[in-house]
Structure to design on (430 residues):
């Protein structure tokens, strides 16, 4: 397959560069692609052949300003990558030639540091480390030729620039990263427990539930409640969405160190985002059996600018009564070795939520937490809709509930399902 090669940079009289007609790739978790495409369309206006939904991400034809805007606003993308080369290869020498043909000098300087990350899908090459080395050599040699023998240094921890190489069976694609740290790092999470839910996955759960529409930005009028909120990820993400607070408003980005960066353009984008912030009108609640986690959640909400938009309380999910007459429950209960939590169904040090889900790998039936939770919901939460993320496909049977939807999602390397349960009186199976 050949792909049109774009000329992304046009020189300006002042010697700076204006970036246009870029091919951007936004990777995301599996199962989130359609929601991300909706979000990208809303942020850029691109559609048709300029916006393609692919496995594991979205490709969009856009300009430099769009790249900055996507970094600031996207709640679902993992990164915003600029494609610089896409060509066939057979061996490491081909990779060297492909990388040598990229004008790296218009993206960063030889005084800056860089890092290369290589991924592969069915690549015939024996060593990805050697492939990475050849790409590194090509970049260094090009700088030596263009900058009188000076070349940038490798920095693996905190590089100024990140280069991504993706190898398939016969093609190599090179990207330069505009994000820096992954986009799930919003900048507000300083207090966290064990294995916290990534903010991007929380946003995906809200989109899949229908509570948030990534296409329009609208949120449902129903209250939202997370009864196992941990450090508050789902509730805080929902509150920021409801208030129109940009996902990346508290953090820095990799593009700030790239040569096309212009401070006045970025400041205008940020100012536009700040102007769009509004008062939240939807009730959002979170609770956790651990009062320590509730304290973490409240402090995180304060940093995220939504302390007044979300209400956190302590309490066991098996005992807490509904915070409103009806609404949407969205939760990611602990599983595997994620968290040890107590509660009324707990046994010993670990609560039933923990022991229930560790039992999955030990031939257990899921413990007592989920059946008790279903009974509690049936008795007290009639009229609510519950969305539960779990890797256990047998969860509905454990809860003796019939799911009305199941949405495939990945929590990192863990394949999960987001189950929807419509709570009506008498909905538990006998």
């Amino acid at each position: 397959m050949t792909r049109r090669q774009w000329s992304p940079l046009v020189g300006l009289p002042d010697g700076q560069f204006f970036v246009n007609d870029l091919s951007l790739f936004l990777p995301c978790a599996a199962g989130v692609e359609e929601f991300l495409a909706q979000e990208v369309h809303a942020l850029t206006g691109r559609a048709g052949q300029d916006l393609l939904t692919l496995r594991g991400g979205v490709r969009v034809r856009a300009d430099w300003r769009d790249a900055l805007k996507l970094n600031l606003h996207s709640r679902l993308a993992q990164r915003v990558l600029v494609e610089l080369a896409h060509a066939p290869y057979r061996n490491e020498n081909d990779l060297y030639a492909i990388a040598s043909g990229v004008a790296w000098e218009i993206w960063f300087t030889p005084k800056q540091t860089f890092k290369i990350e290589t991924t592969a899908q069915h690549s015939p090459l024996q060593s990805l480390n050697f492939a990475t080395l050849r790409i590194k050599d090509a970049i260094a040699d090009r700088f030596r030729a263009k900058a009188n023998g000076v070349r940038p240094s490798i920095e693996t921890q905190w590089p100024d620039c990140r280069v991504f190489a993706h190898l398939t069976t016969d093609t190599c694609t090179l990207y330069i990263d505009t994000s820096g740290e992954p986009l799930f790092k919003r900048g507000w999470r300083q207090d966290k427990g064990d294995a916290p839910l990534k903010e991007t996955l929380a946003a995906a759960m809200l989109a899949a539930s229908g509570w948030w529409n990534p296409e329009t930005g609208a949120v449902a009028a129903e209250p939202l409640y997370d009864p196992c909120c941990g450090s508050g990820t789902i509730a805080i993400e929902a509150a920021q969405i409801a208030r129109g607070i940009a996902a990346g408003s508290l953090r820095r980005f990799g593009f700030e160190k790239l040569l096309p960066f212009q401070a006045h353009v970025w400041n205008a984008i940020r100012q536009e985002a700040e102007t769009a912030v509004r008062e939240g009108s939807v009730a959002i609640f979170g609770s956790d059996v651990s009062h320590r986690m509730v304290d973490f959640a409240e402090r995180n909400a304060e940093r995220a600018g939504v302390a007044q938009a979300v209400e956190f309380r302590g309490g066991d999910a098996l005992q807490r009564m509904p915070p409103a007459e009806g609404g949407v429950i969205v939760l990611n209960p602990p599983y595997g070795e994620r968290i040890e939590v107590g509660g009324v169904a707990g046994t010993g040090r670990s609560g039933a939520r923990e022991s229930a889900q560790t039992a999955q790998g030990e031939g257990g039936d899921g413990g007592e937490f989920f059946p008790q939770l279903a009974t509690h919901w049936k008795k007290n939460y009639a009229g609510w809709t519950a969305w539960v993320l779990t890797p256990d496909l047998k969860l509905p049977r454990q809860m003796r509930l019939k799911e009305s939807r199941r949405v495939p999602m990945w929590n990192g390397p863990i394949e999960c399902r987001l189950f929807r349960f419509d709570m009506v009186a008498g909905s538990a199976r006998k």
